[in-house]
């Protein structure tokens, strides 16, 4: 961290893959890119530019790569502020999976509203098999 902060203070640009604060693992939550970025920002005063979800560059990449239109895209994830937020202001769809960072209560209180909430990926798999 010392070296990273030194480089940033000396003008090296810093990009973050995503602003996720925590990453679920088998042993519990661990700090993710957003937490590490917040530490660097607090130490250096330099803001990190995030390039992953929910930023438009990610959405734009998916459109160009797949050739799909907004209505044909469904984003699936466990984080309201990235995985679900990316769909806001678009005609795409979102599914929140509760097996990670977000809870049902988080979803109720969030400014980002998924189209569907599932408990885990197994439940999602069963729903998709019925289609």
UniProtKB/TrEMBL annotation:
It holds the Pfam family Hydrolase_like. GO terms for cellular component: cytoplasm. Keywords: Hydrolase. One of its GO terms (molecular function) is phosphatase activity. The gene is hdpA_4. This is Dihydroxyacetone phosphatase. The lineage of its organism: unclassified sequences, metagenomes, ecological metagenomes. SUPFAM superfamilies: HAD-like. Its EC number is 3.1.3.-.
């Amino acid at each position: 961290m010392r070296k990273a902060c030194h480089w940033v203070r000396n003008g090296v640009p810093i990009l973050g893959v995503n602003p996720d604060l925590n990453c679920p693992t088998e042993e519990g939550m661990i700090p993710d890119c957003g937490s590490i970025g917040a530490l660097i920002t607090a130490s250096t005063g330099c803001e990190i530019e995030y390039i992953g979800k929910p930023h438009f560059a990610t959405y734009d990449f998916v459109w160009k790569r797949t050739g799909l239109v907004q209505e044909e895209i469904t984003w699936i994830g466990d984080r309201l502020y990235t995985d679900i937020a990316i769909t806001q202001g678009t005609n795409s769809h979102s599914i929140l999976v509760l097996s990670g960072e977000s809870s049902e209560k988080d979803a109720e209180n969030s400014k980002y509203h998924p189209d569907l909430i599932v408990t885990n990926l197994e439940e999602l798999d069963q729903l998709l098999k019925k289609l």
